[in-house]
């Protein structure tokens, strides 16, 4: 059934939407967030967050992990606005259950299209995660490919202290980015976004696994 809006697998409900609809979700959320922020009393902006919306990609590996890891599972169930059906393993599992995913929703295919749309909408993104230099190199490559793209900032994904982590959050908030991509692998990235959701001043937070390793080449 391709028309079902959700695909239930184990205890998760995967969003059965197209790549186009997924991207327009991110854009709408970002545009709405910006509009809300400009209406907020500027004296209150440092304390006030309109609310980051968290999204996750779930491949077969992630699905297996979610069965054994209650923290990750609850994060996907309760803290993520939508979780997306990622990869052929999920496709096969869905077909077994009588559901046909509309698209293979994965970070690798999404990223160039996200960059294109972020540029078109005059938004910006922040790249967090990967080893030192990887997010920065990814930013350089994408900016070269999409000259109108604004990458508001980058940071590696290895924090050696709470103070450093707080500094990174401050950097993200000061960057003005609407969309935060977190590439620390699942479930670390999902749990990180969930934990810091209340203090992150971005519209959209998405866990993207090893995405920057690939795009930094
Ligand atoms: N990573 C990170 N911080 C950590 C642990 C991992 O930034 O504390 C990064 C790592 O450098 C790699 C990515 O997270 O770029 C994990 O990639 P992997 O392919 O394992 O993730 P998956 O796509 O399988 O979720």
From TrEMBL:
Belongs to the bacterial sugar transferase family. This is WecB/TagA/CpsF family glycosyltransferase. It comes from Shewanella eurypsychrophilus. The lineage of its organism: Bacteria, Pseudomonadati, Pseudomonadota, Gammaproteobacteria, Alteromonadales.
């Amino acid at each position: 059934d391709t028309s079902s809006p959700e695909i239930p697998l184990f205890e998760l409900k995967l969003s059965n939407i197209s790549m186009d609809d997924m991207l327009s979700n991110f854009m709408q959320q970002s545009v709405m967030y910006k509009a809300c922020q400009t209406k907020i009393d500027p004296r209150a902006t440092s304390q006030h967050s309109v609310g980051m919306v968290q999204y996750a990609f779930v491949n077969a590996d992630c699905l297996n992990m979610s069965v054994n890891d209650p923290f990750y599972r609850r994060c996907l169930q309760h803290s993520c606005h939508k979780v997306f059906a990622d990869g052929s393993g999920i496709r096969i599992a869905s077909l077994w259950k009588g559901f046909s995913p509309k698209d293979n929703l994965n970070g690798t295919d999404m990223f160039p299209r996200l960059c294109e749309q972020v540029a078109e909408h005059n938004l910006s993104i922040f790249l967090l995660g990967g080893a030192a230099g990887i997010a920065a190199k990814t930013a350089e490559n994408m900016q070269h490919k999409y000259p109108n793209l604004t990458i508001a900032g980058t940071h590696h994904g290895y924090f050696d202290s709470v103070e450093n982590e707080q500094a990174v959050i401050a950097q993200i908030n000061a960057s003005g980015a609407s969309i935060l991509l977190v590439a620390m692998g699942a479930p670390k990235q999902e749990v990180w976004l969930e934990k810091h959701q209340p203090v992150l001043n971005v519209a959209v937070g998405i866990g993207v696994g090893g995405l920057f390793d690939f795009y930094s080449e």
